[in-house]
Structure formats: structure tokens, C-alpha cells
Amino acid sequence: MSKVFIHTRTAGNKGWDNTGREFLRLPVEGEYLALDGASPWYKVELVVHCPFEACYSAEVYAVEVDHNEVMKTKLVA
């Protein structure tokens, strides 16, 4: 498990909500994530790896997206 410090925000919002989470692997730029079963989806915009002595393996910056729009775009037959 990798400890990740996640910064999330809604599109157009300048403030960040910050939380620590554990992931099986580090998220990658361009991927989508949800923080729990009822969470909105977020697109990972920036990953800062912390290969030094720190509490977290990486910091992730992610912006909220409309999961229905993502599904429409990605799953078009």
C-alpha cells in the first residue's frame, strides 16, 4: 500500500480539499479516482513523487469531473 496525500477541488474552485489515503499503487496523471463509494470522480492532473523520508509516497492533485461525461467519451462504441 502507498500512502498518498490527495489535493482535490471542483472545476473553477481555487481552494483545495486535502486528505491522506492509501492506494494499492500510486495514481498516474490522466487517471480517474474516487475517494469512496459515494465520492465524485476526480481526474489526476499532477503527481509529485516523494522519494525521500516523508509521511507520504506522493502528493496527488486532482480535479472533479462528471463521471457520466467521462463514461460517454471513453466508452463510445
Would you mind describing this structure in some detail?
Helix content is 10%, strand content 45%. By secondary structure, it is mainly β. Strands 2-1-5-4-3 form a five-stranded mixed beta sheet, covered by helices on one side. Strand 3 and strand 4 form a beta hairpin. The radius of gyration is 13 Å and the shape is globular.
What is the topological layout?
Layout: E1 2-9, E2 17-23, E3 32-34, E4 41-49, E5 58-65, H1 67-74
Helix content: 10-25%
Q: What is the count of helical runs? A: 1
N-to-C CA distance = 35 Å
Oligomer: single chain
Cα-atom radius of gyration:
13 Å
| Helix vs. strand class | mainly beta
**Number of strand segments:** 5
How would you write the strand order of the largest sheet?
Answer: 2-1-5-4-3
β content, as a range? over 45%
Mean pLDDT: 93
